[in-house]
Amino acid sequence: MADAALFIADLALGLLLGCVFAVVAHGLNLIWGVAKVVNVAHGEFIMLAAYGAYFLNVWFGFNPLLSVPLDAAIGLAAGVGFYFGFLHRELRGKESMGPQSEMVTLVATFGLSLVLINTAQTLWSTTVVGIPWSPGALVYGPFQLPLGGLYVAILSVAIIALSHVFLSKTYLGNAIRAYSQDIPATQLVGISPTFIAAIGTALGFCITMAGGALLTVWLPTGIRPAMGNLYAPISFVIVVLGGPGKMWGSLVGGLTLGVIINVGQLFVGSLSWAYAIAFLVLIPVLLLRPEGILR
After folding, report:
1. What are the residues whose beta carbons fall under 8 Å from the beta carbon of 234, sequence distance 6 or more?
2. Which of 230, 231, 237, 272 is CA-nearest to residue 252?
3. In Å, how far from its chain's centre is CA 228?
4. What is residue 111's three-state secondary structure?
5. Which residues cross the membrane (predicted)?
6. Are 156 and 20 in contact (CB under 8 A)?
7. How far apart, in whole angstroms, are the C-alpha atoms of residue 55 and residue 53?
8. Paired residues of 76 in beta bridges
9. pLDDT at 98
10. What is the pLDDT of residue 87?
C-alpha cells in the first residue's frame, strides 16, 4: 500500500512538473513552428528569466508568480531584438528555410548562447541561488501536493491555452499560422512577412521567459548560469515528442517527460538515470512517429 501511495504521489508530482516543462518548451515550439528556426540559445533565455525572477524577489519581494508578467514583457522585447538581430537578414525575401539559412541561424544562435552563458558567469559567478517560496501544500489523506507546483501547473496550462486561442481565433494569430505554412500566399493577401515573423518570434520568447520564471518554483536552490544546459535539451525533446508546431503537443510532450522523470527515479533510484531514460524515449518516437505523438 505504501508503495502504491508513493507511486501515485510521484505520478502527481510528475504531472505538475510536466506542466512547467511544457510551457518552457512551448516558446521554443512557437519559434520553431513560425520562423522554422531552431534556437540553440533557448536554454540561456530560460536562465535569464530565472535570474529575472530571482532579482525581482531580492529587490522587491516578488514571488515567482508575480514576476511572470514582467519576465514575459522582457521576453517580448528580447524576441523582437532577437529576430532583427539574428534572423531577419537571413530570412527576409525567402520563401522557405534552405540548408544555408538553417546553418547560419544555428551558428548564430549557438554563438549567442555562448555569449549569454559567459556573461552570466561573469556577472553572477557560478554560485547557485534560488527563491525559497512555498505557499504550503494541499493535503488529502496520505497525499500532499505542493501548492506552488499546483499554481504553476494551472498557469502553465492557461498560457498554452491562451496562445492556442490567440493563434486560432484572432486575425494576427491566423496571420502567424499562415506565415508558417506559406510565406508567398501571406504576402499576396497584404500581410508583411517581416512583421508577422517578428511578432511570432517575440511571442515565443515571451512564453519562454514566462516559463523560466515559473520554473523557479521548482528550483529553490537551482538557479545558475549553466542551468540552460539541462532545460534546453528537455525543451527540444518535448517539442519533438509532441510534434514541432503543434500547440497542444507541448503539453503532451511535457506531461510525458515529467511523468517519466519523476516516476522513473522511483524505479531506477537516481534522478540522473531517470533523465537518461526520458531522453532515450525520443529514439523510438523518432523511428515510429517522427511527426510527434500528437496527430
Report:
1. 21, 24, 25, 257
2. 237
3. 11
4. helix
5. 6-28, 40-60, 72-91, 103-124, 144-167, 188-210, 248-267, 273-289
6. yes
7. 6
8. none
9. 66
10. 81
pTM score, whole prediction? 0.91
- Would you place residue 292 in the very low, low, confident or very high pLDDT band (cuts 50, 70, 90)? low
pLDDT at 45: 95
Q: Are 293 and 256 in contact (CB under 8 A)?
A: yes
Across 74-83, 140-149, 183-192, 244-253, the highest mean pLDDT is recorded for 74-83
Element (H, E) at 144: strand 143-146
Q: Whose grid coordinates read 525543451?
A: 235
Q: Cell numbers of 264, please? A: 522513473
* Three-state SS at 83: helix
> Residue 165, SS3?
helix
CA dist., res. 194 & res. 172, Å (int)? 13
Provide DSSP, 31-85.
HHHHT----TTHHHHHHHHHHHHHHHHHHH---HHHHHHHHHHHHHHHHHHHIII
Answer yes or no: is pLDDT of 2 > 60: no
C-alpha cell at 154: 494551472
Question: What is the residue whose three cell numbers read 517560496?
Answer: 133
Q: Which residues contact 94 (CB under 8 A, 6 or more apart)?
A: 101, 183
Question: Which residue is listed with cell 486575425?
Answer: 171
Among 37, 28, 31, which Cα is nearest to 254's?
A: 28
Residue whose C-alpha is closest to residue 292's, from 256, 258, 264: 256
Report the 3 state secondary structure along 212-273: HHHHHHHCCCCECHHHHHHHHHHHHHHHHHHCCCCCCHHHHHHHHHHHHHHHHHHHHCCHHH
